[in-house]
Design brief:
The protein is an alpha+beta fold. It contains 8 helices and 11 strands. The strands form 2 sheets. A 9-stranded mixed sheet has the order 6-7-10-5-11-4-3-8-9. Strands 1-2 form a two-stranded antiparallel sheet.
Length: about 290
């Protein structure tokens, strides 16, 4: 007896499944992602679910098609931040898909429920709209409980948008709260955030850039020729697992820390490290003292 598949149910179920797989990936890495992007990516995955209606395809061809589909879904949800981040999110998304597929295969093998079908790696449930809504609510509460039990309930609060204002210039970048970052300027005790040079260079005047270029960052920001900005530069000491040292820092007019619709101005130093230190996942580490 042939399985009857309703296209609206197929699309709705896969929209639901893809959304929670993407949400789980974002939560696993504490990534700040707009809900609209997750919905867009999940909708793209739901559209791809129509692939199930094609005849059973060759194994290798099936793998290539699934890879292309999953890559476009990941790019739609998270964008391309760096090769490292893309590979990490892809691996996590695949792991969650494999786990879900394993559960579905086990359910099919042991229970063989009516209305469940698998083809070309796509799953289909013949469920009522009310059951789908109930399942959505149950999954939402399960995700919330797991976040609380694993201490990840506040992970969405670990990433902030930071705007550095210096004169008429301003730069914006994403920063992560680091509970281990206790850096302060040693004389004023004003807290400091650590930002990659590439993230702040557009805010610096030309004479200041001489003090914060990557080679001089490694040398502690010291140069031999007179520079009016050198008097404004401060050395912020740090300690890390790899050792200790100092980072050159400057004091902007102010920084803004943005979380949703909340914007707060803060007085802080910006300690500059080499570009690429945070692998494109964020551009700076925030001192917890700066959090509103």
């Amino acid at each position: 007896m042939k399985q009857v598949i309703y296209v609206d149910v197929l699309v709705a179920v896969n929209l639901f499944v893809n959304y929670f797989l993407l949400l789980g990936t974002a939560r696993f890495f504490s990534m700040s992602v707009k809900r609209s992007r997750l919905i867009l990516a999940a909708s793209l995955g739901a559209l791809y679910s129509l692939y199930m209606l094609l005849p059973e395809l060759h194994f290798l061809f099936n793998i290539i098609i699934k890879l292309l589909m999953s890559f476009t879904i990941i790019l739609a949800a998270f964008g391309f931040r760096s090769p490292r981040v893309f590979l990490k999110t892809s691996a996590c998304f695949y792991a969650m898909n494999f786990a879900f597929a394993g559960i579905m295969a086990a359910l099919w093998y042991f229970a063989a429920p009516k209305g469940l079908a698998l083809n070309n790696g796509i799953v289909y449930f013949n469920v009522s709209p009310m059951l789908l809504v109930m399942a959505t609510l149950i999954c939402y509460f399960i995700v919330r409980i797991i976040h609380r039990l694993t201490g990840q309930g506040a992970s969405k609060d670990l990433l902030y948008q930071v705007v550095v204002h210096l004169g008429e210039r301003a730069v914006s970048f994403q920063a992560k709260v680091d509970t281990g970052n206790t850096l302060v300027e040693p004389f004023s005790h004003v807290p400091a955030l650590v930002a990659e040079y590439q993230a702040v260079q557009e805010a610096l005047p030309d004479e200041a850039k001489l003090l914060f270029t990557p080679n001089l960052v490694a040398a502690g920001g010291m140069i031999s020729t007179p520079n009016p900005w050198q008097a404004k530069c401060r050395m912020v000491p740090f300690q890390a697992v790899s050792g200790e040292g100092v980072l050159p820092a400057f004091r902007p007019d102010y920084i803004e820390i943005i979380s949703g619709k909340i914007r707060q101005k803060k007085d802080a130093y910006v300690a500059v490290c080499e570009s690429g230190m945070f692998h494109g996942e964020y551009a700076a580490l925030l001192n917890p003292q700066l959090i509103p």
